TrEMBL record:
UniProt-annotated location(s): Cell membrane
GO molecular function, one term: transmembrane transporter activity
Highest taxon above the source species: Bacteria
Species this protein is from: Kosakonia oryzendophytica
The UniProt record lists the keyword Transit peptide: no
NCBIfam families, sorted: PRK14995.1 (NF011571)
Record-given protein name: MFS transporter, DHA2 family, multidrug resistance protein
Amino acid sequence: MFRQWLTLVIIVLVYIPVAIDATVLHVAAPTLSSALNASGNELLWIIDIYSLVMAGMVLPMGALGDRIGFKRLLLMGSGLFGTASLLAAFATSASWLIATRSLLAIGAAMIVPATLAGIRTTFSQARHRNTALGVWAAVGSGGAAFGPLVGGMLLEHFYWGSVFLINVPIVLMVMALTARLVPRQQGRKEQPLNLNQALGLIVAILLLVWSAKSAMKGVLPLWIIASTLLVGGLLLATFVRLQLAAKTPMIDMRLFTHPVILSGVVMAMTAMITLVGFELLMAQELQFVHGFTPFAAGVFMLPVMLASGFSGPIAGFLVSSLGLRRVATGGMALSACSFLGLSVTHFSTQPWQAGILMALLGFSAASALLASTSAIMAAAPKEKAAAAGAIETMSYELGAGLGIAVFGLILSRSFAHSIQLPSGLSSHEVTQASSSIGEAFRLAQESNTGLAQEIIAAAKTAFISSHSVALSTAGVLLIVLAVGIWFSLAKAEQPSR
């Protein structure tokens, strides 16, 4: 019995940095912009490459764990995660950091299925296994929710690379404990890996996201954007065709034909898009516009973190008593109200209003996440529970990555259109300052024309306007989605009575 819970401690210990790394860089965006001379576009890739790569790799890494055993997969993933953390901590350019964040994601994609397989293998009794899974889920959601606060605490006292260096001693300890205390498992050599298909999926996702970002910026020729979009679409279509034809597919695409499962996937992605995208927006505005330190920005965002972290039990009770349809629709609708309220809230002069609305957002979005899990797992046939769980995990990671992309695109587009720069700047300087608030601040610091304060004031005003556009747009879209969810779940079985 002691050995089981010791294994859980090891699993939780290595899962903490994996969960935190999904959001730890949100408050570091201004710091990275200055330290690495990262453009607004590079900054978005630095942050969201982690979730996008992990979304494509988590399924084949789970198959690799079945093939070699979860202990070996945990050791391999931890080693890669620690090495990538060390490389990321000493990055000297944005491209270096993007590459090392991709390696981090591959390591994390090994760790996550290894931890779940470890729990499933170690705990034979259902009661103990459910408790262990509850602890695992709490660590995952809590780590992601409190990532900005952890990042802020480290940046307050150390240089930005410390958010990665802190992973290294944890990983070394976990590898030592795993090698000595965790029993070895027998793998199944006949298990297919489908790595080529996974790489094709990742390339398709990245090409589609890149083409969307480029189209919104309007800088590249249309034929380049259209060609990239076409290649990404063809790769995605090929992936779907291969999954439908395969005897042991990575993803059972036929599950998407079930309206309830499809609704659950949409809810999961939307909830992650709103939570992750909002945290990134907030972190930049609080620091660039209102002068908060990274740690103060993390503390200011505590309401959304606490509400999302502690909403699970309450949301579970609501699903049981009110039914999935009402909780799912209500979660989306309340998130919409939160965004609409936050779009007209001034964070410096109305902190209490901002705090209440953020708490409402954290609770409602996390409730929608739980409702999505209930929808997917309840609608899937018992023999396809594992496939449904894989779809759910992928939806979470893809939603997290798309949250950065979607909010970043709306912000950058609105910022470029609303900024009113002073006269006397060259066309190159106007282009630089209009690309992002970080670029505008960098131009002001380097400017020798005496216009620094006017550039900064224009950038702050434009970002506040952009924040209103982004949040109100998200609010309207969530209202539309809530209506769609209400009708799509109309025929779902409800355990409310």
